[in-house]
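Human: We require from you a protein record containing the residue sequence and its fold in token form, and nothing else.

Assistant:
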Amino acid sequence: MIIDFRSDTVTRPTPAMLEAMMKARVGDDVFGEDPGVNELEQMAATLFGKEAALFCPSGTMTNQIAIKCHTQPGDEVICDADAHIYQYEGGGIAANSGASVKLLPGDRGRINALQVEEAIQPDDVHRPRTSLVCVENTSNRGGGSCYDFEELKKIKTVCGNNGLPFHIDGARLFNALVAKNETPRQYGELFDSISICLSKSLGCPVGSLLLGDAHFIKKARRVRKLFGGGMRQVGYLAAAGIYALQNNIERLSEDHAHAKMIGAALQTQSYVERVMPVETNIVIFETKGIGAKDLVAKLKEHSILAYAIAPEKVRLVLHLDITKEMVTRTIHLLENLKIAW
């Protein structure tokens, strides 16, 4: 039995999700005629209190569309140095939007209002024009860390005072909502644009959604076409998203509990230097006496798949395909793993 902790993107549709997909009504989405897509977009928009939504193949695309809509070539985007939009989207900010990036050294992937205020460029022809602030919640490289909502409100105030749109990469936003007991509406009121991923913690095979007001989404739809993201009879995938929003949110607390169990087990192991605080479904720990890639290889010998995100950092991600029995087996192995010093 393989236990795959590499990412929450490795999940496969459950039988119930597959059944919903098989029963989907479909049409041509580029013509706006796929009833499943229309239903999913309206469901997500209503959930967050936004006017409209746009279904896309990936979270990278929804983020990049949002950045393109909010900026002009030569502008500058403010984000954390570990943000997904900078680290893992192929240089898309430069390639797709012609914008530069102001990277801030946050706390486990989280920036604060004072940092944002100080990072805004003055009105000077020698400097790029600050045009967008982006945050990521939860933070992937921050170990699934969650923002304090009051700090997000402070950043929003800074954005409002400076005429800047505020975008959230919410690839794992539902994890944050469950962990912090917050609501989608709170985020809908705060952010100008929201990206949510369906193919991570919610267990869909494909898909992300971009949310905003009607004017923004109309512009985003044009940019999606420019990026080659128009899809046709995609209601089969939209049906998975509808099922996920209806059934797979509350269960995220199970993943969080499993992650905390594994994090606690790692705390006392001789080959672990430090475990980052575990808030949601991601466990990141620093190795001691063994490189991350070597440890990942050793775990693989025991049918456990992990991911080395740095020379001495390993990431484990919990998801709906990881059972309690798998967690128990993993903890037993971690506690009895033999490392050659």
